[in-house]
Amino acid sequence: MFDSMIQQTRAVVTSGLSRAELEGLVGGAGRVMAAMGALQTRCATEIEGLDDGGVNSKVVLREAGRMSTRSANKVAKTAAGLVEMPKLAESLASGAITAEHAAVAVDAANKTSAEQVDDELSNLAEVSSVDMFAEHSRRWVNRNQPDDGAELYQQQRDNRVMKHWINEDGMGVLLAELDPTSYQQVRKAINTEYDRLWRDDGGRDGSPDDVRTTPQRMADAFVALLTNPERRGPGTTRTQLIAVADIERLRGEDPTGVAEIVGGEALPQTVLERLRCTAAITGVIFDGEGHPIWVGRTHRHATEAQIKAIIARDRRCRGKGCTAGPERCEIHHIKPWEQGGRTDIDSMCLACPLCHHNIHDRGYIVIKTKTGYQIINPNNPPNGP
């Protein structure tokens, strides 16, 4: 069977095809890869259930499946988790979800419970892209973690480590593993300096990658932060660490309220209280009685308060499949200001430079979906909510 599939795949001609035909082939190949990933996961589940004295699924995946140790461990972990989630296991077997969806669900179950995830997230997995499902799954986990995630955070905090050495080529290597809060603080600082260097190198209107590559710019940003005190300023609102918390949680009145770093993990109450000592607190009203932050057409550019509100709502660039954080984004008027668009949080969204360029120069549009704004190519609309 597999030899026949390989031969058929090799026989597919790609030269001379139109863009639509090539995109169709990529989509078909993606479905086949998802099916194969699901098959490997199902096999790993069956291998773990065998009582024949043979090697475990990790070894089989690494040797027979020719996977890296990391990939094999991930598939084996997913397979083990699905044993306790029959709905998601059936969705994977039927092709309704991919192995990546299943991996996200298993990670969520490890932080909450398999029964909860199987009952409450299985339907969402079937109608969402992997990126969208991962984002909603993370938010769901942050609302449903026992003890507000304090035990998990303490484990992560205890496991923090940094190592450095000189490799065989004489290059210095630094390796750090940090708890989520510390990681987000470091990441924000590096990205802020990276953005400065990117703009110095030409930015969106130039050719910054002709000056230095992205990895080189990241390395230079890291060194500049450590060696130049003047580079350690807070930067703009978009590059600052922003946490979102329910007012009851902020006051300590409701331990089940949400508190999380934008783009990161849940914040235990002890960490939230520590950050609150040095943070500026801004009120953003999402529901209930109150007025949204709005300046109409009096100002063209979003205010600092509006930018914080948009970041709290969008979390990242709204481009389909884009994962750029707010520090790399600009504020886009969905209806251009010159054409009567309002400087209102309901009329603006986050867009990274590339997605912003796609809107203004390539005909991409912004639509509103069940899960918020999304920047799409109108000739290739998104699937799911």
Which terms would index this structure?
385 residues, mainly alpha, 3 domains, two-stranded antiparallel ribbon, 50% helix, DNA Binding (I), subunit A
Structural notes for this entry:
The protein has 385 residues and is mainly alpha-helical. The protein is built from 17 helices and 8 strands. It has helices spanning 2-10, 19-49, 57-63, 69-82, 86-94, 99-111, 114-120, 122-127, 130-144, 150-158, 180-200, 208-211, 214-227, 247-250, 269-276, 304-314, 353-362, and strands spanning 161-166, 172-177, 243-245, 259-261, 330-333, 348-351, 365-369, 372-376. The strands form 4 sheets. It has a two-stranded antiparallel sheet. It starts with a helix and ends in a 9-residue tail after the last strand.
Give a brief rundown of this model.
The chain contains 17 helices and 8 strands.
Percent strand equals: 5-15%
The radius of gyration is 23 Å
Helix content: 40-55%
Gross morphology is: globular
